[in-house]
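A protein record in our archive is deliberately plain, so that people and models can read it alike. The record that follows is passed on verbatim for readers who wish to inspect the format.
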Amino acid sequence: MATIQEQWERFFRWGPFGLLFLATLLALIIRELVMSPAEQGMAALLLFTALVLQVLHVAEKIPGQIYFWTRTALAFALSWLNPFFCVYAVLGYFDSQRYLTRRWDQAGTLITAVTMAGAQAGGLPPKNAAQAAAFGGLLLLNVALIVIFGSLADREAERTRVQEETIAELERTNARLEQALAENAGLQAQLLVQAREAGVSDERRRLAAEIHDTIAQGLTGIITQLQAAEENEHVRRATDLARESLREARRSVHDLAPTHLEHDRLPEALKKVTDGRAHLTVTGTAEPLHDELEATLLRIAQEALANATRHAHANRIGVTLSYMDDEVTLDIRDDGRGFTHPSSGVTHASSGVAHPSAGFGLTAMRERAKRVAGTLEIESEPGRGTAVSARVPLIRHG
């Protein structure tokens, strides 16, 4: 359905043809009463000129101001010859503001008012005093109507302008509010990550210190005592086992902090972790993330890669790191054996029983993602591989 503006555009384009045709029909009725043969011939020439003018206007071949003044002059001349041609002249009331500046608009409507008053009084020029008086009164009436309706139109235009400005201001306010809400959400997520990071870091330091001060020190003492008493095979085996346990304890202390991130950012660290094991793809604009976010994603990738190679026996593994506007995603897909994962654990397709190691790994990945206000989704089916998808908020480093 056409809007009001579109309907007015159609009127300005095609309305003059209709009014010119209607005025011609009405003028033909009284032509012999008010027009001589010579005047009829002149009216025919003026009609043809008016028709050509309208065609040029529709084709946009002439400027708007020239079109208005030429049409107004033709309408005045035709109305002088036959009062019913004022039906064509009435267009000046509707489109003077469209084609003229404000000062010339008043002049255009005044000429239109003169033409209309003259036709309403019986034609121009007035033939007697009574007709002249009628012309003067009708001219005053037309001018008064122009002033009244012009004032109403100005008020409506002002009201429309105020409404448009109010709507624009509301839209700007809503945009600022949405931006503020987005910034607040990002700040809240950042504060949450920082608070959890502080707790996790403290717990890591505590665990590292406890492992170093208890298990590692105890194993060191055991090795020292066993080295002093190396007399048989059992003692040597115990010594080797203690040394292996000590290496594992030291590795645990070392692994409490992601060493791959000491000198590299996340994409470079993932490249080293996946080298020879999986195909890595990075999309979007890589940005330095908050340390805890990068450590979380790296740990999830390491755990997923370990599950794919140890438990799923995958031949192909793909890792995709995606940087988006407000979040970072890490997707790890493999073509391994897959599994079903009821709430009680992770069941491998090969055995049909829950695998406690893999189940613990998946739980650990979920907890890691949750600690940084992220999520982790796992999709798998026996014989059709596994897909792990982690999402964390994009909080920049520092």
